[in-house]
Amino acid sequence: MPIFGLHPExxxxxIFEEIGIALTxxxxxxxxxxxxxIALELWGGVAEERPTSFREWHQHYRLEDAExxxxxxxxxxxxxxxxxxxVEAQEVHAIFPNGSSKWLLTWAYPFSAxxxxxxxxxxxxxxxxxxxxxxxxxLQRMESLGAVAAGLTHNLNxxxxxxxxxxxxxxxxxxxxxxxxxxxxxxxxxxxxAAELVRRLMQFGRTQEMHFGPVQINDxxxxxxxxxxSSFRQNLVVKLDLSRNLPPVKADAxxxxxxxxxxxxxxxxxxxxxxxxxxxxxxxxxxxRATVCITVADTGVGIPQELQSVIFDPFFTTKPTxxxxxxxxxxxxxxxxxxxxxxxxxxxxxxxxAFDIFLPIQRQISMVKSASD
Length: 373
Hints:
By secondary structure, this protein is α+β, with helices and mostly antiparallel strands.
């Protein structure tokens, strides 16, 4: 698609075609006046000899945000930039009429040059990277599942022992109806607890699509503790400090569960001889937003200062060969970033580590209300 109104046309087209990424130009009249070959291939469009309306071009696809919500044409990066808004890099899911889809990272920048003003839209196809990210997340989920499985197995065995012993007692001769009823009640209670353990185990292990919504962080913390408590050693002290009346955060509960399981498992590994595990939640006001902060801290071996800058890198691990994939903290970092949050670490060798997870609250107004309570 040739550039309309730009001179020297041939030089600019050559530069834009050889740049190696998808690039389009939309003018102030919302006409798509240029798309290089990579962009045309990406969107499945056909080169034309005249400007195409951006809305007409939109008929070739529709966009969803990272949370699966459809983006209105008026809120596309190009349209927002045309209105003078500052547009940050945005990850979007493009869905085409034939059912295929792609994950794209987009930027939109206003410009005015050589008699033409509008926006330049840059698009990078991230479909492969997103697929790998999902695969890594699931691999780490399964590794975390293995880390807590031994404790859960011990709990299940205890529950099964309770069921077996209660059943044998109920079958004995000369057992009154009241006594039999008591044994049956124990069987029912143990069976219910066993079923709940298995359900939580299966729920945590299965692949899940991202579903964002209002999430009460304290509820997620309680759910995770039920899952991992079987792995706690006798010489471990667990301290909870959960702030009351926290506003909900906008999150995927299962993904935040994975973050907490990863951090707790790492904390347990850092305290092979026991220690103190502290989990706290609090409301935190950052520069431009309100967040809920989750802290997972231990009194373990700590992290050397020279390693603290690389602990979130994929495949980095200090564990012995075969004891970890090095994906735990990388997965934590990726999930938190997907939630538009941030993660920090404070650690002193020999004195333990503390990880802080900051997640944006559902609505800014919630911060004001909570702060005034």
